[in-house]
Please model this.
Amino acid sequence: MAQLQLLRRLKPQNLCSANKFSSVPKQESAQIDTEPAGNPVTNPLDHPDLFDVKSLFTLQDLFKARVHLGHKDGLLDSYMKPYLHGIRQRQTVIDLEQTVPRLQLALNFAAHIAYRDGIILLVNRTSQFSQLVERTATECGEYAHTREWQGGCFTNAWIQFGPGTRLPDLLVFLHTLEDAFVQHRGVRDAAKMNIPSIGIVDSNADPRLITYPIPGNDDSPAAMELYCRLFKTAILRGKERRKAEEKV
Model:
């Protein structure tokens, strides 16, 4: 129900000109399912998987990308215990059977935001993956923030960037921490401004302020490449479907 309410509140507006957000309007084509006779869906929210995101990955794909590998048990956040399969030799193991439906739900939500012409901001603080995240945002025509978070970026946006500034409609946190113990300040600011968020939450992260938490490894290069590919594809599917229906 929360997902439906958030989507129905989105309305097309002018893009913001905040200098913290960077993107190149480059689009890639993506394959999407079409309704019979090419007719637009009467109510997209009634379709359980309008963009067929469940076909994008399998549990085996997550396992091969090491999504199940968490941190040492000494770094375990108590709120992540329900998402664990267990602990082996002090290494936390994330339950991928919980990750799969949560990732599918998050991808579906991101696709719906793109379908409704919403602004999506990909956020990552790890320098190792900065170029990957920025390239992903560029390829799907969205925005990326990979540097230090400026205080008041959302809560004081109308003063910092001028009146009429539009905030993102969705934040995708590919890493929800500033370091091993400190939560990314953007998570708190998004919650304050009631902006929905998707977040990859490792075993040392606090998932409570994330709208769509996805239990998973946020340090493995293979896992990060998988996340970026999935969100890029989901966003492009939403945009391509909107363009196809506009031509009808």
Notes: The CA atoms of residues 16 and 166 lie 5 Å apart. The chain has a mean pLDDT of 85. The longest strand covers residues 84-88.
